[in-house]
Design a protein that fits this description.
Strand content: under 5%
Order of helices and strands: EEHHHHEEHHHHHHH
Helix content: 55-70%
CATH topology: ABC transporter involved in vitamin B12 uptake, BtuC
Largest sheet: 2 strands, antiparallel
Number of strands: 4
CATH architecture: Orthogonal Bundle
Strand order of the largest sheet: 1-2
């Protein structure tokens, strides 16, 4: 049987592919963070709480309003994105000309408030979220059998990430957004409502986090602490990829998911820290990140 580094290739590849599940969530979350930081220059520490909020809103739509998974997948990101727009208009818009520290402290406070309210309302125990009937069962990939829902998460996350990258890098809308961050006054002179554009950009970044939360709900239990459990790793992904780099966030998110899965098979004790070890190495060799631009 084919072997890699002395291990059977089949189980090793299977565990690495399973790591793509985490990688899909890392990529979606870090993409939202990169959009917000790259275009708005705000370190959004509330991202994990908004990811959790997406899962909670989806759970409420499913269990209290009787909506299915597919309507929830559409509505929850829109609802949480609208909440993000309100946050941006009321609070975050006041900080664009201040030091990054103020934005970090504000969004950290927002995260604590959102998580606290969710914990008071739903408790700390996890809430189950049923896998949609159309995505139940498993799919044979040749060297492994993968749950169909998890395969859907990987494919849907990849398509969403590539679509977001295309919009921001290859369309006139993306060019306008980038120009607005470089010279807002000039873009405003051409008739573009820059404040509205910035607000919608923040809402879109938040909606990406909420979308990740909806897709994570059937994989992990829905609980108020699910965002705080993943956000530190996601920040490490963003740093490795390069702060504000859209492509870097996507490639690094999926790549680190694969590396984490590989490490879990080869050296399980190191799977929880491998991302941070890689972050230290990258910062030592390339402080701007793998895809970032030096200041």
């Amino acid at each position: 049987m084919l072997s890699i580094l002395g291990y059977n290739a089949g189980p090793l590849l299977a565990q690495s592919i399973l790591g793509l599940i985490n990688g899909a969530f890392y990529a979606l979350l870090s993409l939202g963070l990169a959009v917000i930081f790259g275009l708005l220059n705000i370190i959004n520490f509330a991202h994990g709480a908004l990811y959790m909020l997406g899962a909670v809103v989806s759970w409420v739509l499913l269990n209290h309003l009787g909506l299915g998974y597919w309507p929830s997948l559409l509505l929850a990101p829109l609802i949480v994105g609208a909440f993000g727009i309100v946050l941006e208009r009321l609070f975050i818009s006041k900080l664009y000309k201040l030091d990054h520290l103020y934005g970090l402290l504000l969004t950290f406070g927002i995260a604590l408030i959102v998580e606290g309210l969710a914990r008071n309302e739903f408790g700390s125990s996890g809430m189950s979220y049923a896998v949609p009937e159309a995505l139940r069962g498993a799919t044979r990939l040749g060297f492994m059998i993968m749950p169909t829902y998890r395969l859907w998460v990987v494919v849907a996350s990849f398509v969403t990430c590539i679509a977001t990258w295309f919009v921001l890098e290859k369309t006139s809308l993306g060019a306008t957004l980038r120009a607005a961050t470089e010279n807002a006054a000039l873009v405003q002179a051409f008739g573009v409502n820059v404040p509205r554009l910035i607000t919608l950009t923040y809402g879109a970044g938040v909606a990406l986090a909420a979308l990740a939360g909806v897709m994570a709900a059937p994989v992990y239990s829905v609980n108020p602490g699910m965002g705080s459990n993943v956000i530190i790793v996601v920040f490490a992904v963003v740093v490795i990829g390069g702060m504000g780099s859209i492509l870097g966030s996507i490639l690094t998110g999926f790549g680190l998911g694969l590396i984490e899965g590989f490490t879990k098979f080869v050296y399980p004790q190191g799977s929880g820290v491998v991302v941070f070890v890689l972050m230290v190495i990258v910062l030592l060799l390339r402080p701007a990140g793998l895809f970032g631009k030096a200041a």
